[in-house]
Each structure stands twice: as C-alpha cells, then as structure tokens.
Design goal:
10 helices; two-stranded parallel sheet; single chain; alpha/beta; six-stranded parallel β-sheet
Length: about 300
Amino acid sequence: MSFLKNKRVVVTGGTGFLGSHLLPRLNSLETELLAAPGSDEYDLVQQEQVIRMYERYRPQVVIHMAAQVGGIGANRAKPGQFFYDNLIMGAQLMEYGRRFGLEKFVALGTICAYPKFTPVPFKEEDLWNGFPEETNAPYGMAKKMMLVQSLAYREQYGFNSIYLLPVNLYGPQDNFDLETSHVIPAMIRKCITAVRNNEPRVVLWGSGEPTREFLYVDDAVEAIVLATERYNGSEPVNIGSGMEIRMRDLAALIGKLTGFKGEFIWDRSKPDGQPRRMLDVSRAERYFGFTAKTSFEDGLRRTIDWYRNT
C-alpha cells in the first residue's frame, strides 16, 4: 500500500467508535493524520466551520464517518434532526472538498439506505428499487444523497469520491448507552446486568424474527483502508461479512457467552425494523480485495470481555 503514505488525511467522526479503531491503523501506514475532529471542535453542520476545517488542515484525503446515528428508538425520536444533520454534513464536506482540491473523498453510507423489501442478499444495484424501512428512512435517505452527489461531482468535476455501505458494526469501545446503542451492545449490557443482579428475564424489542448481518469493527477498518488505497470507481460497494442471524438466535448466543441463563421476553409493541438484512459482499472482494476475517462468535467474545472490563 502506498497511496496513503505521507498523505494529509482528515477523518470526520474520528473520536467515535469506528474512529477509535481506524486512527491507529492509519498511523501505522505513515499517513500525515492531521485531525480527527469531533463535533466539539468543528460542527460540520455549520458551513463556516467546514470551511475553517479545510482552511486549517488542507487535507488531501477526507474519510467522512461523522453522523447523527442511533438505534430504532433514536431514529424514531429524532427523524428530522437525523435527516438534516446527516444530509448537510455530507453535502458541505464534499462541496468544499472539491473547492479545496481534495484528492479523494471516502463517504461512508449506511445499510439503512436500502429499500425495506430488498431481495436477500442485498446487491448494490437494488439500492434504488424502493423506499427504506420507515423507522430509519430519514437517516438512510440523507446518507444515500452522498452517493447522488458523488456521482454528479464525478461527472461534472472529475471529483474522486467513493461510496461505501457498511453493515451494522460491533466491537470493543462500541456505544453501550441503552438510549442510543445498536442491538449488540444493548443485548450485551442487558444480559450482563441481569447476571450481576440475578434477574430472571431480559426484555428485548420486537418479535425476535428479523435477521441482521454484523461486521466486526477491525474488519470494517481493513475494508475502509483497502478501499481508500485501491478503489476509485463510481459504483457503491457493500462492506459486510456476508452472514445473517435471526434476532432470537443472536440473543441466545449473547446469553450463552455472557452466562445469562434466564428468559428473553420479546416486547412486540416495539418495532422490528427491516425484516431481513444480509449483504452481497462480492463487489468489495472483486474491486479491492476485502473479505471479513473475524468469526462472529470470536468478535462477540472480544466485545463482551471489553465491556466487562470497563
């Protein structure tokens, strides 16, 4: 790998979960990692602060990971904020990246951009064949607009931007706040709390029937680095593990790994979200040589061990 060596790189959202794993990897590649600005330093919703960031750092590469993000509950509570903030961040960062002569813009989209009833496994060419699942459609559509912008800017300006579609991530240093976390950290926290308090049951959202795909965070980092180094195309690319697990089976596995022997109660008054999610990950392997390496059970063990020791 040589493209990133000595490049001035800015990672937005670098203080978050994925950033905490990506930044050490970029440093190992001898990048000139200028900044991983958090929202307390640069509010990327504000145009003048986006300009100020570009003026200060003059990056050659931007990896845009910053997002207003959360689980189903957070998406239902703040659909307008999730739509506006994510839309405007991506639009401004790409526009001013173009104006400042950026060499490459790496946009991280979301699996939530896919239509609600996409055939499984999800193929990138199905991305526009329907509206996303309702509970996270504003977030999904806002992030998908970066793909539209990327295609338009490549056509008009020759701007080199790529668009990656990562599936749900998990791993050490994830967000375990039950108000905003995704399903794996929420299940881990609930199970470990139940074990510690000798509670006989854990309540989980929905019916337990939907399926999901998950990717260990270190595998996601490798995918981002490989794509940044090797891929310069206009087509969106799925980033995932190519596995699928039912929520009931996920709960049982996390229960086993955490030592929870009680009962799971499924609260059907809460939404399930999209019925099924699993990606076709062949394009990532074909275009830049990425395949996930971490087994799901190993990744869960590492995540549980980290949470127990924090």
